[in-house]
Amino acid sequence: MLSSSSPAQGEGLEAVGSRGGEARLARIETRLDRVETGVAELRANVGQLRSEVNELRSEVNELRGEVGELRGEVNELRGEVGELRGEVNELRIGQMELRADVDELRAGQDELRVGFQGLRADFADLRRGQERLAADQQDLKRHMGVLHEEVLARMQALVFDPEPLRREFRAGLTDLEERIGRRLDPIEAAVRRWHPPA
Questions:
Q1: Cα separation of 178 and 142, whole Å?
Q2: CB 149 within 8 Å of CB 135
Q3: What is the DSSP letter of 71?
Q4: Where would a tag sit more exposed on the chain, N or C end, judged by fewer CB atoms within 10 A?
Q5: How is residue 3 annotated by DSSP?
Q6: DSSP state for residue 73 in the 8-state scheme
Q7: How far is residue 124 from each of residues 47, 119, 120, 191, measured CA to CA in Å?
Q8: What's the CA angle centered on 160, arms 158 and 162, to 5 degrees?
C-alpha cells in the first residue's frame, strides 16, 4: 500500500518514523486497507444496487404497461356499462308500455263483459219473443184449422162448385204462412247464431 503513496506522503512517514511512530504507520496502513476494502465493498454494493434499480425500473415499466392495459379494460367496461344502462332504460320504457297495454286490455275486457251482459239480456228478450211467436203460431194454426173446417162445411152446403173458393183459400193460407215465416226466420236465425245446435 505504501508503494502507491506520493513522495510527500513518504516524507511524512519518514518523519513519523524518525519520531518513533512506525507502529502508528502500521495502524494507518491497516486503516487504509480497511478503507480500501470498504470502498471496494461499497462499489460492489453500488453495482448491486444499480442492478436492482435497473430490475426495479424494468418491473416499473412492466407495471406501467399492465396499468395501461387495465385502464383500457376499465374503459371497455365503462363502455359496456353505458350500453347496459341504455338497454335497461329501453327495458324500463318497454315495461311501461306493456303496463299501459295491459291497462287498455283490462279496460277492454270490462267493456266486453258489459257488452256480453247486454247480449245475454237481448238474447233472453229474443227467447221470450220466440216463445210468444210460437204460441201465437199455434193459436193461428188452431184458428185456421177451425176456419178451414167451417169453410169446408159451408162449401158442402152450397150447390155451386167449391173448387175456386178452395184455391182462393189455399192461396190466402199460403200467403199468410209466408208472412208468418218472414217474421219468424230472423228470430230463428238469431237464436241459432247465439245457441248453435250441439
A1: 17
A2: no
A3: H
A4: C
A5: G
A6: H
A7: 112, 8, 6, 10
A8: 85
